[in-house]
Each structure stands twice: as C-alpha cells, then as structure tokens.
Design a protein that fits this description.
By secondary structure, this protein is mostly helical. It contains four helices and no strands. It is found in: Cell junction; Cytoplasm, Cytoskeleton, Microtubule organizing center, Centrosome.
Length: about 240
C-alpha cells in the first residue's frame, strides 16, 4: 500500500518540473476551464517573488474552487445513485403491484364466469319451472272442465235415476194393485218385472257410485296439481331471490 502511495506521489511530483512549469500551468488552465473555473493568468516573468506569489494565490484559489466543485459533483453523484436505487425499488414495487392487479383481475374474471354460469343455470331452471307451471295450469283447466262435466252428468244421472225410480214405483204400485193371487201367470210376470226393476235400480245406483268416485278422484288430482303449482311458484321465487 505504501508502495502504491509512493508511486502516486512520485507521479504527481513528476507532473510539473522547473523546466516544464509553463506547460504544466497551461495544462492546469485547460482542466480548470473544463470545470468552469477561471484560468490562471501566467506572466512572462516568473522569476520575481511577487509574480510567483500572485501565481500561487491564483493556483490556490482555483484549486479551492476545484475541490468544492469536486465535492459538489460527488454529492450530485451520490444523489443520482440514491435516486437510481429509489427508481429501481419503485420499479420493483410497481411490477409487484401490477402482478397483484393482474391476479386480482384473473380472480374477478373467474368469479364473473362462475356468476354467469350460475345465472345461465338459474335461467334454465326458471324456464323449466315456467314451462311446467304452464303445463300444470293447462292440466288444472282440463280437470276443472272434466269435473264440471262429470258433476253436470251426475246431476242429470241423478234426475234420471229419480225419475226412473218414480216410474218404477208407480209401475210397481199399479202391478201390485192389479195383482190377484189366483192368476199365477200374472204373478210370474209381476215377479219378473219386480226383479228387473230392482236390477235396474241397483245398476243405476252402482253407476252413480262410480260417478261419485270418479268425481272425487278428479278433485284429488286437481288438489295435487294445485299443490304442485304452489311448489313450483315457491321454488321459482327462491331461484329468483338467489339470482338477485
């Protein structure tokens, strides 16, 4: 280390000698001017003490200015290094922030895709529910018409049975009034008519019973369809709320 220092000192002392003082001063002036420092005025007569003193003062002032200039440039250099480090850190932070934003965008896009798919499925379910609801309503209208028709038919059948029963009773009364025990032929005819009347009444009553059962079955089917419609409406409302 001392050897390097000695070499530097020897090189510095070797820069200016008595025989090249004028040339060394000119070189220094060029360096001073490159740093924006006023050059040293060189008199032709450097033998007098006064001229050497004036030259020393100029060189000292120029050197002092160069030292301050050097310190200023070093501070500026340090500031630029700090600014560069800050810029690098800002770039790293910005890249990380951009990366996080991209990840957030991807997550949001994935959530949007899931929401759209969920909405599509809910729309399909709502369309199916609406279609089923329409079918159930059509079926209910058909059942109501069938029930109304059966009830009307039942009323007509009851009136017909009542009228037939009344006629049979009248015929029985007439037959009973005209019956004589001595006439066996009339007795047999009377018995056959009586059996036929009873069979007719039983058949009419059986038809009436079947018709009542059919009406009850239609009413039960109507209630089931109405319950199904209520469930469809409730489910459709739940899907709509979930979609919202």
């Amino acid at each position: 280390m001392f050897a390097v220092r000695n070499n530097c000192i020897s090189e510095e002392t070797a820069f200016c000698k008595q025989d090249n003082l004028q040339q060394s001063l000119n070189t220094l002036n060029e360096e001073f001017e490159s740093f924006g420092i006023s050059s040293v005025t060189i008199n032709n007569d450097l033998q007098t003490l006064e001229s050497l003193k004036d030259l020393s003062i100029q060189v000292t002032n120029a050197t002092w200015k160069m030292i301050h200039k050097h310190r200023y440039l070093m501070r500026l250099h340090d500031q630029l290094i700090d600014l560069n480090h800050k810029t690098v850190n800002d770039n790293v932070n910005l890249k990380n922030h951009v990366k996080r934003l991209k990840e957030d965008i991807q997550k949001k896009e994935h959530m949007i895709c899931k929401a759209e798919e969920r909405e599509r499925r809910l729309n399909v379910k709502c369309e199916d529910a609406s279609r089923n609801l329409k079918q159930e309503r059509d079926e209910i209208r058909k059942l109501k018409k069938q029930i109304q028709f059966k009830e009307t038919q039942h009323e007509h059948e009851i009136r017909r049975i009542t009228q037939s029963s009344q006629k049979l009773q009248e015929q029985l009364q007439k037959s009973a009034g005209s019956f004589t025990p001595k006439d066996k032929l009339l007795q047999k005819i009377h018995e056959k008519e009586l059996i036929s009347y009873k069979q007719t009444i039983c058949r009419l009553e059986e038809n009436n019973r079947h018709m009542l059962e059919e009406i009850n079955n239609l009413k039960e089917a109507l209630e089931l369809h109405q319950t199904g419609i209520a469930l469809h409406i409730e489910a459709s409302g739940a899907w709509t709320n979930a979609d919202i």
